[in-house]
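Worked example

This section walks through a single chain of length 244. The input is the sequence exactly as stored; nothing has been trimmed or padded.
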Amino acid sequence: MNRRKLLSLLGLYPMLGGDSSKAETSAVVRQIAELQQRLGLVEDREEIERLQYQYGFYLDNRMFREVADMFADKSSSIEIGRRGTYLGKERIYRFLLEVLGGGRWGLLKNEIINHIQLQPVIHVAADRQRAKVRCRALIQGNSPPGRSTMMWAEGVYENEYVKEDGAWKIERLWWVPTFYFNVPGFDSAVFQTGPESQTFPPDRPSAPQDAALGRSFPPFHYRHPLTGREVPSPSAQTVNNEYK
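Given that input, the structure is written out below as tokens.
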């Protein structure tokens, strides 16, 4: 594409009146560079926000290996509540699996955990190599299952992201809880929806349930954002050692 056509598409050629002086050309180049920078920052914020949400989905399902794989290789840390700070990717993984998870990857039958990620406020550095995120998590859980109450909690993240080899990763994850409390009556929770209509049958049946979970589980439509691996069902009974 020649310069005149490019300037016309950008709406800049008429402004220049067709003049190709060096000063005007420099102004256009600067404006293009500024637009590229602004677009890059928008793309960075979008990718970071998506990663924060994906982190929440993996944590929901006690997918601790998948969570740890979202952290930076060179420098990373995690602090959840007042459990102290763990440094390095493998110690982060051990903290998630052994301390938070009690040594178990995945969910048991009728086990529910949600870490709903809310209100992300994202600031990306001008060099687009680092970013900070403040957001909120609303948590629900009955882990381990069989309890008559559901735990609710809320807290704030103040996280740091870093770009490694062109990909955004979590460098520091810090979550500070605001409150925890238990809601009675969860022993009456229902995990199934209504059955198929007999008077107006569906055109095709619903997807089979995950028997080990005791309910349906929609598979992830995307691979892990950093490893590229397919992510299995979070059923703890069927997981193999590859995911522990």
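What to look for: The radius of gyration is 24 Å.
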